[in-house]
Structure to design on (317 residues):
């Protein structure tokens, strides 16, 4: 494989990955919160843990984005 | 939707084995006879038999068969060495190269009428992804010992518990997005081909999608292996 093509595949992997990871982070965060609320604590804490973990999921999604931007800007130097 | 004709399923039905008409089927024997299992075995048999036939005995002056395998395996090895270093590449080469050959063949086989891509089933892709996921964490613990946990703690001490939860979430997101991407792309290709064959197969309507299918197959195989390698490289290097 030539250098250009290798670079292309790497970018393809990064960029096609980041969108899905963002979405699934949010979904998984929400899922963990929902599970803790409804199954682990039997609905005693109902809306709160879901919201907290939903927020954490969004934060995790943004952390992935941030790491990707950092990786790209490091590579450009 | 019209059911695609899968020749292995037809042969199995002729032999009197129960081939399920749902996606997974009930009971062990039915589950073993589902199309994605039988086609996985076909791909596995192909990958065992064909290199044996084309390579034969290794020779000093390679023939065309041996040449092909030398180029592919050499190229893959270079690619892994670049990302993982010499030792890591040697350690992970059997697994990653197997994934590459298996995925690219499993993707491509669905382009031929009468075959289906085993990777168009979430069970197969999720299985492979779980293997990669567990491997890269085991690898991390093996190289760093217990201090591998620092990978999950982020740069600053104050934010460590917060970062830990974020890392756990994004690790699971990795697991799902890696499997869902391969599954989604290949499943879309399969369904699109089936629909176009059904609607306008006589007018060569699936032809452009077949060309795109080759592209998608190669790209998804490379991207899957590339991401698996990058995860392993990430768990091998030191924490920030």
């Amino acid at each position: 494989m030539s250098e250009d093509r290798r670079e292309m595949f790497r970018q393809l992997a990064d960029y096609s990955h980041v969108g899905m990871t963002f979405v699934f982070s949010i979904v998984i965060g929400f899922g963990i919160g929902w599970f803790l609320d409804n199954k682990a604590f039997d609905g005693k804490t109902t809306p709160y843990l879901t919201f907290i973990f939903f927020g954490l999921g969004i934060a995790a999604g943004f952390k992935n984005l941030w790491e990707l931007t950092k990786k790209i800007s490091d590579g450009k130097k | 939707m019209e059911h695609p004709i899968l020749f292995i399923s037809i042969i199995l039905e002729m032999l009197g084995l129960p081939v399920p008409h749902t996606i997974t089927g009930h009971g062990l024997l039915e589950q073993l006879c589902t199309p994605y299992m039988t086609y996985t075995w076909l791909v596995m048999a192909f990958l065992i038999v064909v290199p044996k036939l084309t390579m034969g005995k290794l020779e000093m002056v390679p023939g065309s068969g041996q040449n092909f395998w030398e180029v592919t395996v050499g190229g893959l090895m270079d690619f892994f060495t670049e990302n993982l270093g010499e030792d890591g590449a040697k350690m992970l080469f059997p697994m990653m190269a197997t994934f590459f050959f298996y995925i690219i063949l499993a993707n491509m086989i669905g382009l031929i009428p009468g075959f289906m891509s085993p990777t168009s089933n979430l069970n197969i892709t999720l299985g492979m992804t779980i293997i990669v996921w567990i491997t890269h964490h085991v690898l991390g613990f093996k190289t760093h010992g217990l201090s591998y946990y620092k990978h999950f703690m982020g740069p600053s001490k104050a934010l460590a518990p917060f970062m830990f939860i974020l890392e756990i979430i994004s690790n699971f997101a990795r697991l799902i997005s890696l499997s869902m991407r391969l599954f989604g792309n290949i499943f879309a290709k399969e369904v699109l081909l089936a629909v176009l064959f059904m609607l306008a197969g006589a007018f060569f309507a699936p032809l452009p999608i077949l060309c795109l299918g080759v592209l998608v197959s190669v790209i998804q195989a490379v991207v899957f292996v590339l991401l698996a390698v990058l995860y392993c490289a990430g768990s091998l290097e030191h924490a920030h």
